Amino acid sequence: MPTLWVDADACPRAARDIIVRAAERTATPACFVANHQIPLPPSRWVKSLAVASGFDAADDEIVERIQSGDLLITSDLPLAMAAIEREAKVMTTRGEMLDQSNIKARVQMRDFMETLRASGEHTGGPKGYSDGDRREFANALDRWLAKRA
Fold this sequence. Notes:
Order of helices and strands: EHEEHEHEEHH
Helix content: 40-55%
CATH topology: Rossmann fold
Structural class: alpha/beta
CATH class: Alpha Beta
Family: Belongs to the UPF0178 family.
Largest sheet: 6 strands, mixed
Shape: globular
Pfam families: DUF188 (PF02639)
Radius of gyration: 15 Å
CATH architecture: 3-Layer(aba) Sandwich
Number of domains: 1
Strand content: 5-15%
Protein name: UPF0178 protein SAMN04487954_11274
């Protein structure tokens, strides 16, 4: 049975609720990893793993534990790339699947935007998490879980 790994430090609450409900409904283990305790309902299938504070401590813990066939839910592109290298599947909280065919281009664009920001260019931040994003994520997660059933 694959495990759902969640980069919980930046996971929107609405996405967290969707993941908890999906894990319970499908009896799929889910682990929320963060540098602080994540409030979760009592569950046989859902747990929280608090790691030591420090730059990328949660990411490092996920990469160490994730296995081929597991699903990582994150919007952190370097973490996504590391998980893909370990043959895990990766989905953003907006329901986008990241894989070998698109991760390098996404990381390069992120790096380019960081360079622009460092040079003083105002690029704006990510758009807010909308109802449409929630629906897309819930549907994508349901599709992924249905393929595993």
